[in-house]
């Protein structure tokens, strides 16, 4: 793999870490709203988590995503950029040629499909940890306690090992169909608006977008993407949270039907406000980290090989 292709993956890693730091607290609120019971609206959920678990409650399950989502984002951005470069080479004979809207959309679809293989276990562990309403302590609970409200997992490794022991490989990929239906349109509504909006707000005559353009375009892209993805994100969150204490859903379609029968169409908009609000700073940090690290690597390469 060439240095240019490798740089895309490294830049995606940096962007992924930045996005986790910026967006995890609101991601916890989103998960509790979508898959939990009794949290009510967003403000009530925030106050309940803070009152019961203090500030630490907002950062539950963050250690695993910090590492794994960095790798996940590395793959997503690397696959997207290199697929786009491949299509430009195929169509125009030049990998550096400006991609068309069709090329960006196709590259987004490929990135969305590939992301599910890595992203499903990451999301599963994160959500299982976020849905534990009490911290684990050996003095307070036995490992086999499955009463609602009791901790089940000691941490991400124990969580993953427990799921493997109880449910096998299929259990680790629980919710993968819902995630595929979320991520394919979600990434199309992520990369394409970012490129278009970034191009629109970049001053005429500039070779590349400035920091403010990247930040705004990244934030808008994140908000748009999450608005599109929220209905299937609700289904995915419910499927992956299912199994911490009991099993309620047989699969994606069953989850959708049960959710609709019990709560109506409005259930698929649960967490929409949190998702769109969280999507702005999280994606702004993602694209800033990505673009800045990419520029730094290219500048370093130019200085090393004048």
UniProtKB/TrEMBL annotation:
Keywords: Membrane, Mitochondrion, Mitochondrion inner membrane, Repeat, Transmembrane, Transmembrane helix, Transport
Subcellular location: Mitochondrion inner membrane
Solcar repeats: 3-86, 99-200, 209-296
Annotated signal peptide: none
GO cellular component, one term: mitochondrial inner membrane
Membrane topology value: Multi-pass membrane protein
Protein origin, superkingdom: Eukaryota
GO molecular function: transmembrane transporter activity
InterPro entries: MCP (IPR002067), MCP_dom_sf (IPR023395), MCP_transmembrane (IPR018108), Mitochondrial_Carrier (IPR050567)
PROSITE patterns the UniProt entry points to: SOLCAR
Family recorded in the similarity comment: Belongs to the mitochondrial carrier (TC 2.A.29) family.
Name listed for the protein in its UniProt record: Solute carrier family 25 member 48
Organism: Taeniopygia guttata (Zebra finch)
Lineage, broadest ranks: Eukaryota, Metazoa, Chordata, Craniata, Vertebrata
């Amino acid at each position: 793999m060439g240095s240019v292709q490798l740089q895309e993956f490294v830049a995606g890693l940096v962007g992924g870490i930045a996005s986790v730091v910026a967006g995890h607290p609101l991601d916890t609120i989103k998960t509790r709203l979508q898959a939990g019971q009794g949290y009510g609206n967003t403000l009530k959920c925030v106050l309940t988590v803070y009152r019961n678990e203090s500030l630490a409650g907002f950062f539950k399950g963050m250690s695993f995503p910090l590492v794994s989502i960095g790798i996940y984002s590395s793959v997503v951005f690397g696959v997207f950029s290199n697929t786009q470069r491949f299509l430009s080479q195929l169509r125009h004979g030049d990998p550096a040629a400006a991609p068309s809207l069709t090329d960006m959309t196709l590259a987004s679809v490929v990135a969305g499909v590939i992301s599910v293989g890595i992203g499903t276990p990451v999301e599963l562990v994160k959500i299982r940890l976020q849905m534990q309403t009490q911290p684990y302590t050996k003095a307070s609970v036995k490992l086999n306690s499955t009463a609602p409200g009791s901790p089940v997992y000691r941490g991400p490794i124990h969580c993953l090992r427990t799921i493997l022991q109880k449910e096998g490989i299929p259990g680790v990929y629980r919710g993968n169909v819902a995630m595929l239906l979320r991520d394919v349109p979600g990434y199309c509504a992520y990369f394409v608006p970012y490129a278009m909006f970034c191009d629109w707000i970049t001053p005429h005559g500039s070779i590349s977008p400035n920091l403010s353009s990247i930040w705004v375009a990244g934030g808008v892209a994140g908000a748009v993407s999450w608005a599109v993805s929220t209905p299937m994100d609700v289904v995915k969150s419910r499927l992956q949270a299912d199994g911490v204490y009991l099993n309620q859903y047989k699969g994606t379609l069953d989850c959708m039907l049960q959710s609709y029968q019990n709560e109506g169409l409005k259930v698929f908009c649960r967490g929409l406000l949190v998702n769109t609000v969280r999507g702005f700073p999280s994606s702004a940090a993602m694209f800033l980290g990505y673009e800045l690290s990419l520029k730094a690597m290219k500048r370093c390469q130019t200085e090393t090989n004048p």
